[in-house]
Amino acid sequence: MEDTAYRDFFVQPSQTYQRRYEALRAIFVDQRKQTDVAEQFGYTYGALRQLVFHFRQFVNGQDESGESPFFETWLPGVARPTIRPKRPSQSSPTVGN
What we know:
The chain is mainly alpha-helical. It contains four helices and no strands. It has helices at residues 4-11, 16-28, 34-41, 45-59. The model is unreliable at 83-89 (pLDDT under 50).
C-alpha cells in the first residue's frame, strides 16, 4: 500500500492548527532545532519563537484565554469568529471629583 499521501498529511500539514501542533511537537518531542522546524513548516524563526513562547505560557497556566493553542472551537452552523491578535487592555483614565 502506498502511504505517501498519509505520511505527507503529518509531515507537510496545510491547516494552520495542525501545522502549529506539528511544529511544536517537532521542537518539544523530537527536540529539533527551532531554525530547522521553522524552515520545514514555513514559519519565520521569529514567528516560531512566538509560538513556542505562547505554548509555554499555555502549559504553565499563564494563558488566561482558556483556549487550546491547537484547536479552533466552533459550533457547526455558526460563523467562525475572526481571530485577531491580543492587544494589551487599555485602562481608561478615571475622572477625579
